[in-house]
Specification:
Blueprint lengths: L3 E4 L2 E4 L4 E7 L8 E7 L6 E6 L5 E2 L8 E6 L4 E6 L8 E8 L15 E2 L3 E6 L1
Parallel strand pairs: 2-11
Antiparallel strand pairs: 1-3, 3-8, 4-5, 4-9, 5-6, 7-8, 9-10, 9-11
């Protein structure tokens, strides 16, 4: 069983930055499809960053240029650097992983087997 634990969420003013971390219980970040999702109240869960099996980063237009996903295989960790935060970025953020390779990316949350418990990000105007 793979366990994911997020940290780094918090409250920040618009324009600020936060860095989320996701610690993975096993050596999976090098071979799994990894991603960050978010879910705001009353909205569907959406991908904000995907790290493909071959290490490419993919982002939706809503965060492109502001968010950066990365991983450290030696630490079994994934990160999400979020800059120029906006109030509409307020949501619970989740780390996700799946053993099936995703060279082309995977945007549907149903395509991920393992999830963290989430970390809250609140951006005030």
């Amino acid at each position: 069983q793979v366990q994911l634990v997020e940290s780094g969420g918090g409250s920040v003013q618009a324009g600020g930055s936060l860095r989320l971390s996701c610690a993975v219980s096993t050596d999976t970040v090098s071979t799994y499809c990894m991603a960050w999702f978010r879910q705001a109240p009353g909205k569907e869960r959406e991908a904000v960053a995907i790290l493909t099996t071959d290490g490419r980063a993919m982002y939706p237009n809503s965060v492109k240029g502001r968010f950066t996903v990365s991983k450290d295989a030696a630490k079994n960790s994934q990160y999400l650097q979020m800059n120029s935060l906006k109030p509409e970025d307020t949501a619970m953020y989740y780390c996700a992983a799946d053993p099936v390779s995703c060279y082309g990316g995977r945007w549907n949350p149903a395509g991920y087997k393992y999830w963290g418990q989430g970390t809250q990000v609140t951006v005030s105007s």
